[in-house]
Amino acid sequence: MHWLTAGMFIWFAWTHPVQADVFISIKADGSYVLSNVHRPGRTYQRVISEPASSLASSDQAQMITGMPYAELVAEAAEANDLPAALLHAVIQAESRYNPNARSPSGAVGLMQLMPDTAKELGVKNAWDPASNLQGGARYLKRMLTLFDNDITLAVAAYNAGPDAVMRRGRVVPPYAETQRYVPKVLRQYRRLQGLAMDAPL
Fold it and tell me: Structure pTM?
């Protein structure tokens, strides 16, 4: 009877998809315990394992939620239909998460908005992290729309301006800064997405 019951538990575990490891153990009174937690002092047999892809996805989600300004980035990403990982990659390259960053050309804040761009985007205080992120996300979304969701060209345009990309036939401009910037952003984006460094975007 015990083996029949155990068999039923195992059958249930294998035929009902779950999002975590499942363990089975036998208590002193002979009853069975199913658990997704391996408690010390008990002997368990794992009857199903969480798929590696689910574990990887969970790890990536935890990595992103552990980044600086994670909540504000998530809000800006959702409001502008962007991957949060892409916003984080741009912020890392632009300011390294320093809300007080200012470039020699006058770009400011987390996403390094130029004063004219910030004004056009309706950003009243570009030094405010939430406002800066929302403005930067709107601008990045605009670049993605302009370049047919080509992330490489959108990132290049974010750095060098859309005209620079357009003038050269929709390719990454040959500016030294942009040539360094684009691979840096894409490398971080792939890392946060759990993608191989040569994975297509």
Answer: 0.71
